[in-house]
Amino acid sequence: MASVITACLLLPPVSSVWAQESSAASPSAAAASHPDEIVKMHQQVAAANREYDREVAAARKVFDHKKAEARKKRNAAIEAAQSGVNQQ
């Protein structure tokens, strides 16, 4: 037990400065300046996925709006049909 404590005391403290520095850079600047081609590729793929998700979200808003309009028309037609049956 004492050897574990001694080993922990001898280890240098872990710094999180590197994480803060890497998160401060913008993704496009990081992609342009990173020397590793695989990292650049992954960053470009991530950027393409973000753009795709943004476009899908915009299309989904249009779809939801059109769907709501169609639902209103359907509900009005159903209500008209049911009120005609109830009157007889």
Structural features, described:
Keywords: Signal. With 88 residues, this protein is mainly α. The protein has a domain at 27-87. Helices cover 85% and strands 0% of the residues. Helix 3 packs antiparallel against helix 4.
So what's the overall shape? rod-shaped
The unreliable regions are none
Average pLDDT figure: 79
Distance from first to last alpha carbon = 90 Å
What's the number of helices?
4
Number of strands: 0
Helicity, as a percent range? over 70%
Strand percent estimate:
under 5%
**Helix/strand order:** HHHH
By helix and strand content, what is the structural category?
mainly alpha
> Radius of gyration, Cα only, in angstroms?
29 Å
Biggest beta sheet attributes: none
Topology:
Elements: H1 2-10, H2 17-24, H3 27-33, H4 37-87
Helix pairs in contact: 3-4
Give descriptors for this structure.
signal, single chain, 88 residues, mainly alpha, DUF4148 domain-containing protein
Give me a quick take on this structure:
The chain has 88 residues and is mainly α.
